[in-house]
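Researcher: Please generate the 3D structure of the following complex. Treat every line as part of one assembly.
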Amino acid sequence: MGIIVQKFGGSSVADAAGVKRVAQRIVNTKKQGHNVVVVVSAMGDTTDELIDLANEVSPLPPARELDMLLTAGERISMAVLSMAINDLGHDARSFTGSQAGVITDAEHGRAKIIDVSPGRIEAAISEGAIAIVAGFQGVSQTTKDITTLGRGGSDTTAVALAVALKADVCEIYSDVDGIFTADPRIEPRARKIPRISYEETLEMAAQGAKILHLRCVEYARRYNMPIHVRSSFSEKEGTWVVNAEDVAQESTDKENTVEEAIITGVAHDRSQAKITVVGVPDKVGEAAAIFRALADAAINLDMIVQNVSAATTGLTDISFTLPRTQGQVAMGALAKLQGEVGYDKVLYDDGVGKVSIVGAGMSSAPGISARFFESLSAAGVNIEMISTSEIRVSVVVAEPQVEAAVNAAHAAFGLGSDEVEAVVYGGTGR
Amino acid sequence: MGIIVQKFGGSSVADAAGVKRVAQRIVNTKKQGHNVVVVVSAMGDTTDELIDLANEVSPLPPARELDMLLTAGERISMAVLSMAINDLGHDARSFTGSQAGVITDAEHGRAKIIDVSPGRIEAAISEGAIAIVAGFQGVSQTTKDITTLGRGGSDTTAVALAVALKADVCEIYSDVDGIFTADPRIEPRARKIPRISYEETLEMAAQGAKILHLRCVEYARRYNMPIHVRSSFSEKEGTWVVNAEDVAQESTDKENTVEEAIITGVAHDRSQAKITVVGVPDKVGEAAAIFRALADAAINLDMIVQNVSAATTGLTDISFTLPRTQGQVAMGALAKLQGEVGYDKVLYDDGVGKVSIVGAGMSSAPGISARFFESLSAAGVNIEMISTSEIRVSVVVAEPQVEAAVNAAHAAFGLGSDEVEAVVYGGTGR
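Model: Done. Output below.
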């Protein structure tokens, strides 16, 4: 009998009604003849409420104690979910991350899983029980202290457990039906993607699509664990995240056109800002000094563009994007540098957005960038910056033009369905 | 350097302000040169709220899962308290019952402590840290599942840890100043008792004085661990619960009068009901059948009185008291028995109260019962039932007369202070 790992997020178990609905869903899977292991996040806003409580007593709580506090959230949700399943007449047992054998390093707040020893989970399912495991948490191998994996860590818990248990699939439930060719809120013709590769999912996630967390997809890719992204509010098939060969096989099976395979989706991101350092002397070490200063300030840079220096002045401009939340810190770090580097000025712009096309077929298909840029041009969208990877082309545009850019790219690569897809959203408004 | 174990109840840490106040108090003790180990209950009404949540998803949640759920309460309070202490510049580390080495049997919801192996606590305090331990919880020796000790279990956790750590004292903090000669809410002249024996404390608690939980006092008595009952809202000395020899020594030191030593306090209890089975045939086995039926229904009987049978009828009446909450169940069990035993009728009365005088010196002092009953008579209080132990005399009276009975007994044995004691209560209104 195969094992299915199912992960339910906080919005799916936000209240007693949600817990009961999820419990019924889990029982249905069990009745279909599967061994079921469930990973659950804290109910609704519990984690935020616990953080608020911590801040009431201490402006900077110790990370060890914050982890101890936050793990109370999953302890509540897993016990309540287990009760609801038992109430439906099925044996269910809840386990903390530590009890489930989720062994991590000692980095509180962002611990990495270094081993999973799910002996108690295997024992529970071999006795016919449904195992409910707390997401997001583990226990340090060295200190034996309770750790958390950071936000989104429950997805990673689910994949790691699925790998350790040799599960058939890891199902990640949320309040949307799967991964779409674009955000359905701004692209009404967005289609649900039936299959997508790990690599494309990583690029989509990194470029702003709020689907799966990077770490969880990386973990699944490393161990080739299929992820099925689906909604806890419907029984529909969602999106399968699998390795590239399986996606290609599927496309051949369905005799999809080549064009459909080239671009998988359009992602956008409104969380970034752009900084331009104007008039940097084009000498060895100047750019290095700038990026060293930003690295020392722990700034997460995304796109970086350096123009060719003007022959007459020997000066160049360096632009980069970064999370808006880090804008102040970055500007401060650069200001301290003006004497050393001797640039003219620094420009800060948080009225930008990034739009990316992602597709595994892109690298072998010529003219993709051209078609993308032409579609933007036809829609009157001005490109401010460009960057590319093997399977992605990203542009920075003015924020008010993000929607037009997504629509244009979506249409240019034939991603839209003929009819507007009825997207089922849950009640949380997210 | 000696070890002090301090236990703070839920009302002391009901909110962030309470947590900070308690943190300061703990730090003060640490600064006085003690190693400090703290046991904490769940904040305020957390436990009740978690029980409500459980009942929302399941009318009868499995005990294992309920324990998992409820232990989230102390996890929150201990982490937050630890943060507050760290915020005051002192190293504090929180530990679950399991981490603190509280090993129990597998009786979920009412587990018994069978061993305490506080290796991690000893390591923490040897490094100069303050250890914060979750009360009320442990881990089963056999199943490795999380257990709870039942309501009031945090007191027992504190005493058990104090014993295992060979602490100098176990301080139990609440919102009252200590143990009083009577409930100050109905006896304005009640005095705080400076020292009281384990045995007297057990009798006071069993007879309705809401001070310490029986199990915790029994544990302390077995291992001769002094308990200091005091208020978290004041720095005053509270009540020391110690062995009888130490109480006697203290009395001799202070040259107290003999009379003061005879009766320690007056307890009262309004939670009981009285059932009278009228017209029971006075034959071998009739009473046994009644009490077997009640035992099978898990009724906790307290006082039992059987009158001499009337010579003319050969019938007798049997009365007993029991918790009001069990009244319906007991009446149902007795109704089923009428055919077998053949009694006349059963009377149920929940308008009763119990008043008890407790004192270790009682057994060697004649006339105590007489003085007690005379005082009640003089106050116009009618006695419905009487029972006695080595160090206690209890009477059942009509509930509206409980207060008058307490006042009369308190005065008759000279327990009152000359002035009305200024009792300091906390803000919780308990």
